[in-house]
């Protein structure tokens, strides 16, 4: 008896069946899913036809009533024309649109959009215009969605302020990855800038001898220090990881120093006399500043290390 070969539409593996089973509902010997033996699609080693990997999501109709030149809609089970690419019953598109995943070069978010070749698209996170071909290597396009882990991306060309925004939002508690020098200095630059702004009321109050402004400035400074102590310690940890040091240890030390600074602010706010802690913090601050500068200036290790991938690759 004549035999035909075809692909299982569920698991994608080859199946051989007798010609007498064309159009009949059977169970796939590989995945045990209920499928229909195609009537007019033969197996061809030269790929003379394109396999559409459409998942069955609805019960199939009695396939024995399917006429020649028709096929079954995999979504609603109705009989439709063999060449149809759109079901007139359930209004489903029978050709699955290829989608691609890549990292937006502006906001560093994972984006999944239709593979529009040369057409332009917009990032759903930052709204920047993207060129699909330029943002995604052509030689690794696949029929199915491509895994992010299989792609080597070029360095993210983010601005200093964008790195700062990442540090205080998306990477607020991230101390395990690696941070390039630009990310470290961008974060520290704007943390310092906004830290000076938080002390503006205290500076004005001191100049005008206004105790209300001084106290208000002390409260604002305290709240700012409390909110930024974690991202500052984490970006230091990621920078240390990038040069091969144990970033977690430095993060703990940074948190301890930050905690003492906050304690000093509370003492100042409550007008408690204490001459030892400010002097101690001044000395430690100078020494810790040297550590910051050294860690921030050393070039990171090339290639992947035990803390993660190279942020420059």
Automatic annotation (TrEMBL):
UniProt entry keywords in alphabetical sequence: Membrane, Transmembrane, Transmembrane helix
GO cellular component: plasma membrane
Any single Pfam family the record assigns to this protein: DUF805
TM region positions: 184-207, 213-236, 248-267, 279-298
Name under which the protein is recorded: DUF805 domain-containing protein
